[in-house]
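Regression check, zinc ion case 161:
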Amino acid sequence: MPTPPHPSGRNDIRLLTYLDSQPVSNFRLKEFETSDGLAMVHAATLLGLEKVRRDLRLLAGEDVWVIITDAARTPEELERLGARLGWSDQGGSVSRDSRHLTRYGGIAVDFVAVIARTRRRIPQRTLGDICRRHFDFVKDDYADGHVHADQRSLLQAPGGP
Ligand SMILES: [Zn+2]
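Current build output:
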């Protein structure tokens, strides 16, 4: 059987978008990978993330890293997550109709942000407030400190975080 290529190059591709007509490229496709190494991200999600990063940088006066902790999820991954963290209709934190599902086209991301120099976390609520400028829906009360953001206005039908 052939040996698979080393995974370090997998999805190691810079994503480019434009802010005020200027090219920006601070994210890589691999940051949006599922556990199987498939990657999906909507253009509006990437644009929102770049705007959040820009605003955080202005706020902090120095470089800030936006660290993606979860992006598109397959139905199987959502099942595993729901089993681990609990479903929102049973008091847990995982929605059965999550916008993270691949069928929604990569409109949802979970992330944290840190000051690059010190690795100090940007407070969850501060990050959430900035996200509300650039995403349709933001949830910033998770116990582990991450923020969920999605571009749900792009959808034709309702769903959950
Ligand atoms: Zn989320």
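Comparison notes: The first helix runs from residue 43 to 60. The mean pLDDT is 94. No diff flagged against the previous build.
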